[in-house]
Amino acid sequence: MSTGDNTLTVTDNRTGRSYLIPIEDGAIRASALRQIRTGAGDPGLLSLDPAFTATASCHSAITYIDGDAGILRYRGYPIEELAEHSSFLEVAYLLMNGELPSPEQLTELTDTVTHHTFVHENVKEFVGGFHHDAHPMGILVGTVGALSTFYPEAGNFTDPVNRRLQMARLIAKMPTLAAYAFRHSRGLPYVYPDNDLSYAGNFLSMMWKMSGRYQPDPVLEHALDVLFILHADHEQNCSTNAMRAVGSSRVDPYSAAAAAVAALYGPLHGGANEQVLRMLREIGDVQHIPDYIERVKKGEFRLMGFGHRVYKNYDPRAKVVRRLAENVFRVTGLNPHLEVAMELERIALADDYFIGKKLYPNVDFYTGIIYEAMGFPVEMFTGLFAIGRMPGWLAQWEEGLLDPEQKIARPRQIYTGPDERHYVDISARHHTEHDLVEPPPKPIGGD
Ligand code: ACO
After folding, report:
1. Which atom of ligand 1 is nearest to the CA of 51?
2. Which of 74, 198, 398, 419 is the most buried (most CB within 10 A)?
3. Which of 89, 64, 86, 88 is nearest to 76 (CA)?
4. For atom 49 of ligand 1, which residue has the closest CA?
5. Averaged over 427-443, what is the pLDDT?
6. How far apart are CA 321 and CA 100, in angstroms?
């Protein structure tokens, strides 16, 4: 029977007692369950949600997603409008400040970011210490974290001026660090930032410049800027959750951002863009697609670039990327993998397996094809994502710090180990064969 009020009545069948739990914004406080006990020694009910599939970890005013309707908005603005009309630094300002900037505010942010693109010369030395085939994301995890040693004042982030300075530094230095990682892998000299270029243009210069001045192609420069916008935030995804959780320990933002970069590296998250291209190369030809799809359906591996925790209709970013691809290919020529990708999408979207599980292309499905057409090696793809995501990580980190509800992130557990037992001296222990029973590995990518 409905009472019309915003509460949940829970009856504990172990005790027969009922509890009234308030519902706020479509959620109950998990801590409200702790009052549900069987007796004095019972610490209270916990909720178990290993992958946060039904648990909100915070309030946030930054990004809105409606996964069923395929909607993504930054601070209320639809992603399609921002991709069409805005610039990456304008979006960075929006994410961090809540409003689009005035011309003066945008100029100020652009000047600050441009002013901080250089990194300390020592960074070149430790990038040089990485093995020649070190993955750029591994280098980024290390170098982003190492920046904290150059800015020991970064731990004093309760001072808003100091905090904002570190945030600008992180946005400014990401392209430099990513480009250094690439140049190191090729044995090429590092290129200093060109502060006369745009944010995206300067990154292209640091990647590709050999001698003389580098002038980016305006279409590719713009496409990269749009790709950065599309990646700039995505509410409480795996890497943002890492940023917030590590940040909740009150460590400096460089160390928290290193954790976020590490989370992004994973093939189920930002690393998927690299895996998509490897998959397309492995498939090679449209005639191999039906076979490949059958193997996915048998559970041998996942179709990379498909599926999303939140989007169950389509990923609005993937639509923008598809349109963007056309502009890029007009300059670079068609990427031969495009035909395989489009056919793969067509076949998958007509297949009951993918329809039933609501699996649609996500942002990573087409970005790799664009990046490859622009000349980026596959190992750089996730680094490009990391550059774009930095303003989102920082906005979310700052929102967490300023949230009066924030405490150190510390989930509970359901203990499943042995009961108390007592230490046995090694001489008295009999040799036992511990069967290492591991669950079978979960399928990831196709190669
Ligand atoms: N290919 C084949 N089957 C899939 C795929 C896929 N790409 N994704 C999910 N499924 C299946 C699962 O096997 C599962 O089937 P089951 O119910 O029979 O066990 C079902 O769909 C639900 O999948 P979950 O793994 O429970 O979904 P979850 O929300 O945990 O995972 C994820 C989301 C990680 C994105 C998943 O869809 C995936 O692995 N996709 C491929 C990797 C990828 O593209 N990642 C990029 C995500 S976007 C981003 O991070 C930028």
Report:
1. 30
2. 74
3. 64
4. 269
5. 72
6. 23
In sign, the C-alpha dihedral spanning 205, 208, 212, 214 is negative
Q: Is the pTM of this model over 0.85?
A: yes
Phi, psi of 315 (to 5 degrees): -95, 115
Distance separating alpha carbons of residues 45 and 48, to the nearest angstrom: 10
86-100 as b/e, with b when 16 or more CB fall inside 10 Å? bbbbbbbbbbbeeee
Check pLDDT > 50 for residue 447.
Answer: no
> Is the model's pLDDT at 433 over the cut of 70?
no
Residue carrying the six token digits 């290390």: 142
> Which residues does a 6 A CB cutoff place in the pocket of ligand 1?
268-270, 272, 296, 302-309, 357, 359, 362-364
Residue 414, phi then psi, degrees to nearest 5: -105, 110
Check the CA dihedral 288-289-294-300 and report its sign: positive
pLDDT at site 97: 98
Q: Do residues 154 and 167 touch, judged by C-beta distance below 8 A?
A: no
- The C-alpha atoms of residue 57 and residue 72 are separated, in whole angstroms, by 19
Nearest-angstrom CA–CA distance, 202 and 176:
9
Our mutation pick for probing the ligand 1 site, out of 240, 306, 365, counting the most ligand atoms within 8 A of Cβ, is 306
Maximum alpha-carbon separation in the chain: 80
The CA 51 to ligand 1 mean position distance, Å, reads 13
- Dihedral sign for Cα 183, 186, 189, 191, please: negative
Q: Are 148 and 170 in contact (CB under 8 A)?
A: no
Ligand 1 atom closest to the Cα of residue 362 is 48
Taking each helix axis from N to C end, the angle separating 381-402 and 136-150, rounded to the nearest 10 degrees, works out to: 40
Position 446 scores a pLDDT of 43
Helices 238-247, 381-402: inter-axial angle, 10-degree rounding: 40
Contact 370, 217 (CB under 8 A): no
Average pLDDT over residues 232-250: 98
Task: Give me the pLDDT at residue 253, please.
Answer: 98
Task: Give the per-residue pLDDT at 438.
Answer: 74
